[in-house]
Amino acid sequence: MPLRIKLLFVLLSLFSSANSQERQKAVFGKPTESELAMKFYEKDTTANAVVLYEQGYYYYAAVGDYIKLIKEVHRKIKIFDSQTRDYGTVEIPLFSSDGTREKVKGFSAWTYNGNTKRKVSSDAIFITSEPEIGSVCKIVFPNVTDGSVIEYVYKLESPFLFNFYGWHFQDELPKIYSEFLFKIPLEYQFENILYGNQSLYLNKSEVTDDCLQTKVNTMIVGCPITLYAMKDIPAFQQEDYMLSSKNYISRVEFEPKELFTSTGWRRSRKFTKEWKDVDKFIKKGEMGSQLKNSKYFKENLADSILAIADDLQRAKAIYTYIQNHYTWDGTFYSSETEVKDAFDDKKGSVPEINLSLINALEAAGLDAKLMLLSTRQNGLPTTLYPVMTKFNYTVAALKIADQTYLLDATDKQAPFGLIPFRTLNVQGRVMDFKKGSYWMPIEPFKQNIHYVNAQIIATDDGNFKGKVSQANYGYIGLKKRSTIEEKTLEAYIKTEGNDKAGVEIQEYQVEDLNSIEKPLKENYNVTIEPEMVGDKVFLYPFFNKTYISENPFKLNERNYPIDFGFPFTNTYLLSIDLGNVYETIQLPESRTIKLPGDDGECSVTYISEGNKINIRFNMKLNEYRFPPAAYQSLKEYFGTMITILKEESIVLKKI
């Protein structure tokens, strides 16, 4: 049966009842006159496009000698502003493993402009590779302009029976109607979980006896088929300082539980249901086998390292050795993890490097364990029951006395005990194969400081000249070092030296760039030309490049929790010598603002003594995770702070 007809058949025949009119219907290839004439979306007039209709239908079918997972999709989109993004390109990720890849079949797509329509040609459909995604089927629509409607259907055929994943009802575009149907044999047991704050418009389920039939005429019966639908779905708005949108976007996800063998066409496979099953699986699996190489690493560690008596200093020496020995290849996982081969190649994936680190620490008599975690971008791991697909990263959890250090040797700029920002995602699972695994909070490094000390003096020409010294600790220093590594030192200095009009920076120097256990220091000379209005001179004292340069919170309300990743402190000390050039007319107000509780405090103090002005600005953010209810307080806090740093000036007058 052709794909378009099959989708229509599903639409018209499933769940036929007195309430069947509740489902919205769409006929492929026949956009309505109102859809073609639509100028904007009434429920979101700011939207540059809207999904008019979409349907997903996932099921299993016999294809030749094999059972395949089939995913059929129908989607229709109205475009109001074609310049804001490339709406004419659709990407379909294709999972692949061991040389086998999912395939897109039965594709049909059209672009409609009024009474004109153009079909997507076969040469506009091609397979490409994206670094963070893998294989992708790309479809390029012709003649996409303002007012176009694009529509497509496709069937994805997958040999990976348990890559059911799920369906996103919510996306970056608003949607008028989205429905998802899925038919799963009773032999396949999945947990399906709804995420997000949007409510289901429809939630129905029936059981059909005609489930699927294998080539050897073995019928699988008892197949529940379920319909979920949502309507008038708002676009998901990404907000500053938040964890992955995967934690909040409205969707349904599936995780495999168990496969029985009543049909005889596939051997039994039981998925982990308790953490003790996971512990056993990992211990006996590939990762567990790679954790049994401490003898190999002991042979490769220098005697001078193994002879260090102090446990912490020995651990730091091993961390530095592994960190310098390896170059991270940029991948979070590899299909075949071999720590010995990676050690010889001096290059590896995240698990290859960090499993090597664990082996080396254990070879030195230290208590190091594997921690599984999910990166910030990957979303929070599920805690209700084991879901291994939620983890995509590994680090080492090292315990010395009563202190636990999380270590990741993939980043050459990260000092001991400071794991990359991408890993700061609430908690991870420590794999203790003797006592049982357990959840452990992922606590960020605490001392993240941007410190500036500046001394400037008025010159006879009315400008100010002086010296500035900066020190960057913790994640702030790590980010700067990573930027320098990526851009080169020369490019970084050029960027830092051209920040504000009227401010000229010279002789910019960076100290301790390669001494990652020390703060990154920056020193430069500065010349400042103040603003003159009549006989008044306006000097903006915070001329340096501040850590926070604008209020990140500009929305009227916040829908999702705020997560900065780590606490931080900004301290700016400024000494201004007016000499015999200026006298003070007016200083900004000294004041202190606080967040509720002990979550944060910002203070600024101006002191004028004779011909000198001393300024101290100090901002602390003690907490780094906030609920949406704290949004208004944070908005006011950062708003006032930016006003102090960017808008308030010292008023002077020439003597």
TrEMBL record:
The entry's keywords: Signal
Residues annotated as signal peptide: 1-20
Gene3D superfamilies reported for this sequence: 2.60.120.1130, 2.60.40.3140, 3.10.620.30
Protein name, UniProt field: DUF3857 domain-containing protein
Organism: Aequorivita flava
